[in-house]
Specification:
- This protein is of the alpha/beta class.
- Helices cover 38% and strands 15% of the residues.
- The radius of gyration is 26 Å and the shape is elongated.
Length: 489
């Protein structure tokens, strides 16, 4: 997993490392990595020599990084221009280096620009870009290069204007982000939360980490961890020569109803794509489930289902007394459970709160933002990681807060984020597939937070796979899970 660090920890590490190095060494390391990435991008657009490059330079070290990187590009023959947003507070040594290398200061962006380097504001920024800088950032979308294509925007460390520790992005009155939208972000030393969570992550584009020697100096606990493909491969349950359907795990699925039979079919489809050897279904969509998946053992009620190693409950279940009785039966079972959709609605009035807290077996709840709001009485807000951890502590459950960058939080304060999300999954029923897959992973013996992380990661990849063929339906996501699993596991 990739650790992600808050600004305070990064500042402390930088201070400790700089005390051991000659003055300016850290900035030169950052500028060298930044210039290298820019040169590679320019190579794809006709080469570095004579390439028009624009530096957007704010005050402080972020602007200094951009100026030193610009000087390196200018020495390689690029036509580098610097637009100073705060000339009185510009990084003077960096500006001198740019001028000595042949770069120039301009009052307005050149007409033709291949690459824009965003050095307006770094990890110390708060509250979004000021009006002039915001308008300049918006105008970058209209800049074009020598080949007629849009200028490539490279952010220095983070896209200017984002809230670094939360991933929030302030908006203008017209709803436009008060931040730069980058194609590439070159981050120095350690990943920051804004590159991984919240709407800011979508503004970062492709992220490349430049090692400046910060790692050994980072202290304390990361803010969160980003799940990586290697984690999924390592955690995925392995089959042995003696494996059979019961030793692989049995998952129970209490979803769907006569009114919503599709929810039962979709959640069972997700469960069958997982690692367990047998799926037991209990609910009102019994006939539809067996017709679609003959291998499933189906009953009408949870109490008749037989022994399982985990339960999935909620999708399409309804919220009447029969549904509430099924949820109580699931919670009474001494096995891990996944609670989704209608099961979460049944939790809102608090009548099942004691039953939740008394459970020894793990619980995973999977709300989207509206369900989170009903459970908590308030929206997740700007800090989705903190919101997820609050709900996890309150419910004594692992919380999987769904979104483009799904956040997973544990009751003891650990947080993970999934990087594979896609807007293609924003369609009815895809959450049912996710819940089924998650339940299968729990039944196979995976720890709750790992099961949630693996399920979210694979679900995102399946959404991307399904989107390659056109508009996505939930059944497409269930079908895409198998080829995705075959490719990475």
């Amino acid at each position: 997993m990739r650790p992600v660090w808050r600004v305070a920890e990064i500042r402390a590490a930088e201070k400790a490392l700089m005390a051991e190095l000659p003055p300016g060494t850290l900035m030169q390391r950052a500028a060298a990595g930044l210039a290298r990435r820019c040169a590679l991008l320019l190579a794809d657009r006709g080469g570095v020599y004579a390439a028009p490059v624009l530096l957007l330079v704010g005050s402080g070290d972020n602007g200094g990084d951009a100026l030193y990187a610009g000087a390196r590009l200018a020495r390689r023959g690029a036509a580098v221009s610097a637009l100073l947003l705060d000339p009185e507070r510009v990084h003077a040594p960096g500006l001198a280096a740019l001028r000595a290398a042949g770069g120039r200061v301009v009052d307005r962006p050149p007409v033709v620009v291949d690459l824009v380097l965003d050095g307006i504001v770094g990890i110390g920024g708060r509250g979004g870009l000021r009006e002039t800088a915001e308008q300049l950032a918006a105008s970058l979308l209209r800049q074009h290069g020598r080949d007629g294509g849009r200028a490539t925007v490279v952010a220095v460390d983070v896209p200017s204007g984002v809230e670094v520790d939360t991933g929030a992005v302030p908006l203008t009155s017209s709803g436009r982000p008060k931040a730069v939208r980058a194609d590439v972000t070159v981050v120095f030393g350690a990943w920051k939360p804004a590159l991984s969570v919240g709407p800011a992550a979508a503004l970062a584009g492709q992220v490349e980490l430049v090692d400046i020697g910060l790692g050994p100096w980072l202290r304390g606990s990361p803010a969160l961890h980003v799940v990586e493909e290697s984690d999924v491969v390592d955690w995925w349950p392995r089959l042995g020569a003696a494996s059979e359907k019961y030793t692989r795990g049995v998952v129970g699925v209490a979803t769907g109803s006569a009114t919503y039979p599709g929810a039962g079919v979709l959640s069972v489809g997700g469960a069958l794509a997982g690692p367990t050897g047998l799926v037991r279904y209990a609910g009102g969509a019994r006939e539809e489930v067996v017709r679609r998946y003959p291998s499933v053992i189906a009953t009408d009620r949870v109490v008749d289902a037989g022994r399982v190693q985990a339960w999935v409950c909620g999708s399409g279940l309804g919220t009447d007394e029969r549904a509430a009785a099924e949820l109580r039966a699931v919670l009474a079972a001494p096995v891990p459970v996944v609670l989704d959709a209608d099961a979460l609605t049944l939790l809102v009035d608090g009548r099942l709160a004691d039953q939740l807290r008394r459970r020894d077996a793990p619980i995973v709840i999977t709300p989207h933002d509206r369900e989170f709001t009903r459970l908590c009485g308030e929206e997740p807000g700007a800090d989705r990681v903190a919101a997820t951890l609050r709900l996890a502590a309150w419910t004594n459950a692992v919380v999987l807060l769904k979104g483009n960058r799904t956040v997973i939080g544990t009751p003891d304060g650990r947080a993970y984020v999934n990087p594979t999300g896609t807007p293609a999954l924003a369609t009815g029923g895809t959450g049912d597939v996710l819940a089924g897959l998650l339940g299968s992973l729990l039944a196979s013996g995976l720890a709750a937070e790992r099961a949630a992380a693996v399920a979210a990661y694979l679900h995102g990849l399946a959404g991307r796979e399904a989107a390659r063929c056109g508009p996505v339906a939930a059944a497409d996501v269930a079908d895409a899970l198998r080829p995705v699993l075959a490719r990475i596991t």
